[in-house]
Here is the input.
Amino acid sequence: MATIGPSIMCADMGRLQESIIRLHDANVDFFHFDIMDGKFVPNFTMGPDMIKSLRSHSGKPFDIHLMIEEPEKYIDLFADAGADMISVHAESTMHLQRTLQAIRGKNIKVGVALNPATPLSYLDYIWDTIDYVTLMTVNPGFAGQKFIPLTLNKIQQLKQQIDEKNLNITIQVDGNISFETIPQVIANGADMLVCGTSCLFKKNQTLEDATAKLKNFITKIPEYSPVNA
Ligand code: DX5
Ligand code: ZN
Here is the structure.
């Protein structure tokens, strides 16, 4: 079954510790931290010290999504801050394979993120170096954007390639993952759902109620099957 990970950039920045504890207790599967540098994306969010300050409040995987230029300079910083998983954008570094190897060298899970327009061919020479692929289903940088429909085809094609190559690679989707798009992304092969304002952080719902509603909704969605995709 697809796993859910709150996108912490959407949480109440003034009550982050409380949010992590409450979401942990509500039994989310992982935590997704969008790191932005104002260059790769026109926005800023959080840094390694914030990750470090939250680390002791949950043992669930901390998934760090580096939406920054030259991520190779910062792998150690985020790994030492407590990352269990780090994804870097294929578009953000001149030396993608070397950067992925550096993450591997920290003994944490290795992810590559692709912007909506970036083709899957970017994966051709790094299949042996990644544990997961983050497919951006919106343009990166801001919460509250609209799902880009053509990314559904991309999820399906990626799932087909993973299955054809008999690889153990997880598909994470990030952006406007909502009660409308969740059935579609799961039907096309998505495994990890980054949950932000579209399905989890709602003004009129507690974190506990929103998480329970989301988990219950997902249990009712048919698992991926190549025939139906
Ligand atoms: C885009 C962000 C968002 C966020 C999820 O850069 O990564 O996808 O995490 O928030 P919503 O659900 O508002 O897209
Ligand atoms: Zn993200």
In short: The CA atoms of residues 50 and 81 lie 9 Å apart.
